[in-house]
Amino acid sequence: MSDLRESTGPAPEVLAAFEAATGFMPADEGLALYAVALDAARRTGLPVLEIGTYCGRSAILLAAAAREAGTVALTVDHHRGSEEQQPGWEYHDPSLVDPEVGRMDTLPRFRRTLHAAGLEDHVVALVGRSPQIAALWGGRLGLVFIDGGHTDEHATGDYEGWAPHLAPEGVLVVHDVFPDPADGGQAPYRVYLRALAEGFEEVSVTGSLRVLRRPVPAAG
């Protein structure tokens, strides 16, 4: 685990909590997310927002970055699981099914994850569907991390709902971008291409994680 730490990376206890949490994000992508979130939060002084929280693995890193920068991490998820996490699908985890209602419910695991990491006070959990919350949101954001449902409907809704709330100097991060269909679903890739076509510029690539920024207009 010590090999994962960089000079600007999260504290060892944060990395330990990240690695212990339920989720799918690889360590190299997590470290890249932490670095860009910390930079965006420090530069803008604004909240960083994640769409698609699951059990809180990447939220740990966003919360740690927000804590370091003196702001807050926002998480958006209905906590009923995305399409590939439903019964009969590849990423289904039966331990996350609420036995009383017979549906996925990742919210309790998410809250335990944040508690174990000591980061509850640095996260505001927005529980509901992304487009509905985005339509109600009135503030600016320093970072928007799209990691929700992987259908075109959901990925496009996340982008259209939240990208307009980015501050001019904010950062858009898209996860699970696979140019080759053999590697994964194409909806995040299509959102990434759309962002490029609409003026965002690519800042960095780490695995399937793409970091983009809308250019700041030149003065004068």
Structural notes for this entry:
The structure is a single chain. This protein is α/β, with parallel strands linked by helices and 220 residues long. It is built from 7 helices and 9 strands; from the N terminus they run H-H-E-H-E-E-E-H-E-H-E-H-E-H-E-E. It has helices spanning 12-20, 27-44, 57-69, 107-117, 130-136, 152-162, 187-197; strands spanning 48-51, 73-77, 97-98, 103-104, 123-127, 141-146, 166-174, 201-206, 209-213. The strands form 2 sheets. The chain has a 7-stranded mixed β-sheet, sandwiched between helices. Helix 1 packs antiparallel against helix 3 and helix 6 (152-162) runs parallel beside helix 7. It is globular. The protein starts with 11 loop residues before the first helix and ends in a 7-residue tail after the last strand. Residues 1-7 have low confidence and may be disordered.
Kindly state the number of beta strands: 9
Fraction of residues in β-strands: 15-25%
Q: How much helix, percentage-wise, in residues?
A: 25-40%
Spatial arrangement of strands, main beta sheet: 5-2-1-6-7-9-8
Mean pLDDT: 90
Task: List unreliable stretches of 5+ residues.
Answer: 1-7
CA radius of gyration is 16 Å
Category by helix and strand content: alpha/beta
Spatial shape = globular
- For the record, give the distance between the C-alpha atoms at the N and C termini, rounded to a whole number: 48 Å
Q: Helix and strand string, N-terminal first?
A: HHEHEEEHEHEHEHEE
- Count of alpha/pi helices: 7
Largest sheet: 7 strands, mixed
